[in-house]
Amino acid sequence: MALQRTFSIIKPDATRRNLTGKINAMLEEAGLRIVAQKRIQMTRANAESFYAVHKERPFFGELVDFMISGPVVVQVLEGENAVLKNREVMGATNPKDADEGTIRKTFAESIEANSVHGSDSEENAAIEIAYFFSGSEIVG
Ligand code: ADP
Ligand code: MG
Where does ligand 1 bind, in terms of residues with CB under 6 Å? Predict the structure, then answer.
């Protein structure tokens, strides 16, 4: 296994409920290091381009509205097999399908307001990290 980086977002439903620290603790307990982090308000253009891969899906408009409904915390996570490890800690997209102990099972409100985003591949992680962070903001 190799040291990897992945991109994570703590979504507006979670920042609204003051869950940033609790989610970060779950990430850290899973062996992921938060090597970059900032709290931002996404613009509509940010959210539309970040989720462009979903633009034909029926929920795209609502998803964009949700992602700009409050601040988010964008993060770079580092660890062994970080992409897959983060997906495991996050749990399934729909919290009803998520395993016990995962972030989404514990905190998500719905399939849309599901508290966290995590990259689905190393390739997408690199693209997503570069969209939100410059190299000097990432300190491993
Ligand atoms: P994941 O975040 O688990 O990688 P997807 O990439 O499929 O899931 O979807 C991106 C985001 O779009 C989800 O995290 C969720 O916020 C939202 N979403 C996915 N499916 C639905 C749906 N059927 N209805 C509403 N929102 C959805
Ligand atoms: Mg996805």
Answer: 54, 59, 63, 93, 111-112, 114, 117, 120
pLDDT of residue 2: 85
**pLDDT (tens digit, 9 = 90+) per residue, 31-50?**
999 999 999 999 999 999 99
By alpha-carbon position, which residue is closest to atom 5 of ligand 1?
93
Please check the confidence at residue 85 and state whether its pLDDT lies above 70.
yes
Distances (CA, A) of 30 to 77, 81, 101: 11, 11, 11
Length of the chain: 140
Q: How many CB atoms lie within 10 A of CB 130?
A: 11
Which residues form the catalytic set?
Answer: 117
